[in-house]
Amino acid sequence: xxxxxxxxxxxxxxxxxxxxxxxxxxxxxxxxxxxxxxxxxxxxxxxxxxxxxxxxxxxxxxxxxxxxxxxxxxxxxxxxxxxxxxxxxxxxxxxxxxxxxxxxxxxxxxxxxxxxxxxxxxxxxxxxxxxxxxxxxxxxxxxxxxxxxxxxxxxxxxxxxxxxxxxxxxxxxxxxxxxxxxxxxxxxxxxxxxxxxxxxxxxxxxxxxxxxxxxxxxxxxxxxxxxxxxxxxxxxxxxxxxxxxx
Amino acid sequence: xxxxxxxxxxxxxxxxxxxxxxxxxxxxxxxxxxxxxxxxxxxxxxxxxxxxxxxxxxxxxxxxxxxxxxxxxxxxxxxxxxxxxxxxxxxxxxxxxxxxxxxxxxxxxxxxxxxxxxxxxxxxxxxxxxxxxxxxxxxxxxxxxxxxxxxxxxxxxxxxxxxxxxxxxxxxxxxxxxxxxxxxxxxxxxxxxxxxxxxxxxxxxxxxxxxxxxxxxxxxxxxxxxxxxxxxxxxxxxxxxxxxxxxxxxxxxxxxxxxxxxxxxxxxxxxxxxxxxxxxxxxxxxxxxxxxxxxxxxxxxxxxxxxxxxxxxxx
Lengths: 246, 315
Known about the structure:
The structure holds two protein chains of two kinds.
Chain A: H1 2-22, H2 31-57, H3 63-68, H4 79-82, H5 88-109, H6 115-143, H7 147-161, H8 175-179, H9 190-203, H10 226-240
Helix pairs in contact in A: 1-2, 2-6, 5-6, 5-7, 5-9, 6-7
Chain B: H1 2-18, H2 31-50, H3 52-56, H4 65-90, H5 96-105, H6 121-139, H7 148-176, H8 180-199, H9 211-216, H10 224-242, E1 252-254, E2 259-261, H11 267-275, H12 281-294, H13 296-314
Antiparallel strand pairs in B: 1-2
């Protein structure tokens, strides 16, 4: 049961962030970047489908029941994934923190005792390497671009910073899964993540936020107010016309 | 002397066109040919980009994960098409910034079809099925267009459009064979998108401003009415398979011509929408401007960063 809920949590992470990135389609600052954001969104939505598919084999529901027929308290994505980001700097501040985490996490998850999870991790790791390359390029260009872009990127880092600590918490349900090698220990990844992010932020002439605040609760279903709006938009058709095929 | 020179070049140019030799960006070409192509290719690029709006609005509302992924890929493809087309126009000396400026000032147009709203999920089916079908009928001959970069861009675009058309038809088929509500949604979408799709081929041959010279230059190879007929002949049997009714009481198969006869197109509506008085003209253009302006600080940052780091990247 707990492997199932861990897989659903990872799937929710990917779905919610993929959805947030898909909101940018047609709205990026220039066409090439529009295509790039859609690519990352497609990677994440594809990852969500693989993980929901795995959850179904572990005895869970199907992917569309997970995505469209649960209410916010049943979603277990971490809060950082669901934050709205209609500002380009916010989108990439969040993306950088997550991409660096993903590269470390999926690298470690490739060694999972669960073969399916290890396989999904191998694919996700390769994608995460590209995502980090792209989001760190934006960190550098915005941080070391104009005064305005520098100020916006610094503010964006400050705004999302308090949500990153949750990435390194192991939910109590996962403790035995970590012990038996099905999942990596999130806490262990923090040192490498902090070092990498610090190095990138400083190279971008920005300052690592002081980090004296944090918000958490996603894995236990206690979300930000934003998730409800995201779901209202995403779920309205299957909710209005229940039980049909699309 | 110079005039004679130009006459000789113009004659050689037309001989190459007549012999089906592709014109490439560095070849000599008449100014009017260059202008016509910039107008047509940039209009085509703008259509792809503005066309992202009605469908893009449904990515976050797609009713299944599979549909969401497919729709996002499709709209991304359209952005890609815009990119090839802007690049093809750039080979003729038009900058992307100048083309976007022409769009914003109203000097450049885009396909009027995108001034109609996408109101229900079935509209995503109807757009893929009808609008992309019409685009394919228009664009297949453009693969043999006399200007090389445009023709080559069309080869790839047509391949992708055929996937888009199939995904739209699949949505329509799923709805038309689904619940009563879904079937009604599909019929409603067909009712609203049918006539605007026929208008995509432009005015009747008798009233088309740009046709004859474009035919001589082999930018255009079939007349508007020929292409429209081809589209109708394809689409009507497809509607039959769906069990949906094409909203044209005069539609009938003509044994003699082996084509469908169809009712009169409301050219007043067409002209109104082209002039700017369609349901979404203001909204589409305002959104494009809003996005462009919202991204200005990012584009400025890219330029500033590149300038600062030029020395390092040169090493």
